[in-house]
Design a protein that fits this description.
Layout lengths: L10 H16 L14 E5 L5 H12 L3 E5 L2 H6 L4 H4 L5 E5 L2 H11 L8 H18 L3 E3 L5 H12 L8
Parallel strand pairs: 1-2, 1-3, 3-4
Helix pairs in contact: 1-2, 2-7, 5-6
Length: about 170
């Protein structure tokens, strides 16, 4: 039939991916935390470690409901998991990255100021690492891996059902 190449194929799969993508957008950067019960996975880490793109890939490719939560200066100082995340520990995955790579990424975004200084980058990564270790959060280093590889590692560790196949 004509036009089939551009059809939806399986409407249920399409709907699932759209629903998961909307979930990611609504639960990006800790913006909305009341839906965490519905999350399959919650990525945590400091700014610019790949949380949002990984969540979007998980949603678009697999229909996975992924949220992400940035660790703020307050949490890093207290070395404690945010209270809202405590009851979702089994869904948590920490993202980390080599300091030099993180500084490079941050400088592209905001070259001046403390945000992209090596001292700040090292501090944030060190403190986030302490939180992950203390709370038993599995960690994935995103430095050498593509979003596809990061997503695959998370799904394999989590045992989350890939509701949709790419």
């Amino acid at each position: 039939t004509m036009g089939k190449a551009h059809g939806l194929g399986d409407a249920r799969k399409y709907d699932r991916r759209i629903e998961a993508t909307n979930f990611v957008m609504d639960n990006d950067d800790g913006a909305r935390i009341r839906d965490y019960d519905r999350a399959d996975i919650i990525l945590i880490g400091v700014s610019r470690t790949g949380k949002t793109p990984t969540c979007l890939y998980l949603a678009l490719s697999y229909g996975v409901f992924a949220a992400n939560y940035p660790l703020s200066e307050d949490q890093l100082e207290s070395r404690a998991l945010p209270t809202i995340l405590e009851k979702h520990r089994t869904k948590l995955y920490g993202l980390t990255i080599e300091p030099n790579r993180l500084q490079q990424i941050r400088k592209e975004r905001r070259a001046l100021g403390q945000y992209s200084s090596m001292q700040q980058v090292r501090y944030e990564l060190r403190e986030a690492g302490k939180i992950f270790k203390k709370c038993g959060v599995p960690v994935i280093d995103t430095t050498e891996f593509s979003i596809e590889e990061i997503s695959s590692r998370i799904l394999n560790r989590a045992g989350v059902e890939r509701r949709v196949r790419p």
